[in-house]
Amino acid sequence: MKKIAYGILATLSGLVLLFSYRTSLGEAVVASPASDGASTAVDSAAATTSGASSATSTPSESSTPSATSTPSATSTPSATSTPTESNTSASTSALADGTYTGSAVNTRYGPVQVQITVSGGLITDVQAVDYPDGNGRDRQINARAIPILVSETLDAQSAEIDFVSGATYTSDGYQQSLQSALDEAAA
Questions:
Q1: pTM for the whole thing?
Q2: How crowded is residue 91: how many other Cβ atoms within 10 Å of its Cβ?
Q3: Exposure string over 100-118, b if 16+ CB within 10 A, otherwise e
Q4: Does an H or E element contain 7, and which?
Q5: pLDDT tens-digit profile of 98-124?
Q6: Domains along the chain with CATH numbers
Q7: Average pLDDT for 10-23
């Protein structure tokens, strides 16, 4: 009978200790935009003096920024990339006017080939002259992906474009063929 009582007391003591262990401070970490594009947290004193109603904590230098569950409408930092000399894409200022067709790049689902038109040193038109369309699914994917890739190209004026989710192979082939056309235009 003593062993049973000791067992129950030990179990209860363990549960009390387990549930009383403080796993978090109960304070929310609020990310705010910074001028360099990195997210930082504001300390509690600054939040109180600025009239903010939520508590925040300051991360240490080795911690990574975390997202909040209630982002404000004004905290939408966006990362922008600027071309540097280390970019492999051709500089648009050195492009000769004309129409250039990139090499056909074979992807898992078929070849992708891009044709660009350059006017005034800028890419003014982009056409995907060949892309996978062997079945209905390929046509469906590329009907959505190709216009996005064309828009990205016209905005970036280089081959440094974002891939389209769900069309990774087409995006990769498109980018390689586009780079080939840009290299031809820069020569």
A1: 0.51
A2: 14
A3: bbbbbbebebbebbbbbbb
A4: helix 2-20
A5: 999 999 999 999 999 999 999 988 999
A6: 29-66 (no CATH), 92-186 (3.90.1010.20)
A7: 83
